[in-house]
Amino acid sequence: MLSNQKANNATESLTSSSAFAFVFTLGIVNLFADMTYEGGGSIHGPFLGALGASAAAIGFVAGAGEFLGYAVRLPAGYVSDKTGRVWSLAFIGYAINLFAIPALALAGSWPAAAVLMIAERVGRGIRKPTVESMLSHTTGHLGKAWVYALNNALDEIGAMLGPLVVALVLFVRGKDSYRTAYATLLVSTLLALVALTIARRAFPHPSQLESSNSRAATTAGFTRSYWLHMVAAAFFAAGLTSFELISYHLSSKGIVSTYAIPVLMTLASGFGILASLVFGKMFDRIGLRVVLIAVSCSALFAPLVFLGRLPLVIVGMLLWGVGFATQDTLLKAVVAGLMPTGRRSLAFGLFYTGYGVGWLIGSTTTGLLYNYSIPAVIAFSVATQLLALPLFILAERSGRPSR
Q1: What percentage of residues in the chain have a pLDDT greater than 70?
Q2: CA proximity to 357, closest of 222, 237, 227
Q3: I want to staple 381 with a disulfide (CB 3.0 to 4.6 A). Which of 153, 239, 349, 360 is the partner?
Q4: Which three-class secondary structure state does DSSP give residue 317?
Q5: Does residue 4 sit within a domain?
Q6: pLDDT in tens, 67-98
Q7: Each residue of 304-337: pLDDT tens digit?
Q8: Using CA atoms, how far apart are residues 301 and 382, in angstroms rounded to an integer?
Q9: Contact indicator for 111, 53 with CB cutoff of 8 Å
Q10: Which residue has the higher pLDDT, 165 or 344?
Q11: Within a 10 A sphere around the Cβ of 305, how many other Cβ atoms?
Q12: Poorest-confidence range of 66-80, 135-149, 209-223, 258-272?
């Protein structure tokens, strides 16, 4: 009997190692992917402005892209669960997501650039629920929040490196060399797809990484708590101003040089790495309180970014990074604890569709408000994020199935 126990422990240890290796490998994929689309995203606002787009148009493009990127997660998640072709959807999504960025080097007008920017978001939306559901198979071994924190930390390393590459291109080639910067990101695009191919060959069946003690998917259907968490997340999303509008503001007001704008995004991403790892460990221990702390911190970014000079802008961007760490780590951990059995991808896709509705409303509203009143932009951003707090508390207290 003792030998059987030792064998079981050895098997569990081996599976835990495999789970970690899978999370790390997908993290490398996302590192290169984030280099591409976060590097490109760091100059979307000024690039659209240079092509003649207004602040309202930039806000709408950002909001529409995020909304469609989240909305497509619902059908993508449904198809993933029904067909089981998780890797095929992942490859399709990554290809659209990544090739759209270097293609911006060829855009001749702001509507053409907008189409590519929106396509990039849609591609990301196609692959997201599938990738998140694959990662959820490892949460029994590694912890719900820690899995997403580790993956997000690697994401954010790429999100730091991409804007730095772009900043270097702009510094060397001049502030108008946006097209060269976009074209340079083809390198990280190809590296991401190579890494994805390696992940597919090494882990063809991620479901086999499931722990026998896993509690990732325990409900029979979508609960009332799930829906309330979605509504709370939508309010939170509405207050997270897009970097397109932030970068447009910093550029048009002359607060920082054009090549320094990607550096600010790098600082935010770097702080997001730290926040993800700390919040991930804390969430697995104390749960909702971490979400409330993170959202409260994120709500303070807007007045610092939109009213302050450079020192306050830097602090504001760090808090903005906390907001995206919340989005990419804590909210995923919340969903991982509420997934109905057999509908993992759908649970992520549906949740982030609701999140995307909030993002569309928020981005469009702040884009329209910007031309009339910056204080109104700030008030909207702070208020919507703070309104999410009581909704998260109500969602946590509610465990009844929806009827």
Answers
A1: 91
A2: 237
A3: 239
A4: helix
A5: no
A6: 888 788 888 888 888 888 889 999 999 999 99
A7: 999 878 889 999 999 999 998 888 788 888 877 7
A8: 8
A9: no
A10: 165
A11: 26
A12: 209-223
Q: Is the dihedral of CA 217, 192, 162, 142 positive or negative?
A: positive
Q: CA-CA distance, 127 to 131, in Å (whole number)?
A: 6
Residue 403 forms part of a structural domain: no
Domain that holds residue 57: 11-202+215-397
| Eight-state DSSP code of residue 26 | H
Find residue 219's DSSP bridge partners.
340
End-to-end CA distance of the chain: 48
pLDDT at 219: 55
Q: Determine the Cα–Cα distance for residues 322 and 344; give it in Å rounded to an integer.
A: 26
Task: Say if 402 falls within a structural domain.
Answer: no
Alpha-carbon torsion (278, 284, 285, 288), positive or negative: positive
376 Cβ contact partners less than 8 Å away, ≥ 6 residues apart: 369
Mean pLDDT of the chain, nearest integer? 84
Q: Quote the tokens at residue 80.
A: 């993933």
**Amino acid identity for residue 98 in this structure:** L
Domain count of the chain?
A: 1
Read off the CATH number of the domain in which 252 is found. 1.20.1250.20
Q: What is the mean pLDDT of residues 326-352?
A: 78
The sign of the torsion formed by the CA atoms of 240, 243, 248, 249 equals: positive
Give the C-alpha separation, 168 to 177, whole Å: 11
pLDDT tens-digit profile of 92-135?
A: 999 999 999 999 999 989 999 999 999 999 999 999 888 888 88
Q: Which residue type, as a one-letter code, is found at position 372? A: Y
Work out the burial of residue 343: count CB atoms within 10 Å of its CB; fewer than 13 is exposed, 13-18 middle, 19 or more buried.
buried
- 349 occurs within a structural domain: yes
Q: What are the C-alpha distances in Å from 89 to residues 68, 80, 129, 216, 347?
A: 17, 7, 10, 22, 16
- The C-alpha atoms of residue 124 and residue 119 are separated, in whole angstroms, by 9
Return the axis-axis angle of helices 55-71 and 344-370, rounded to nearest 10°. 170
Q: What pLDDT sits at residue 400? A: 47
Confidence (pTM): 0.74
The DSSP code for 308 is S
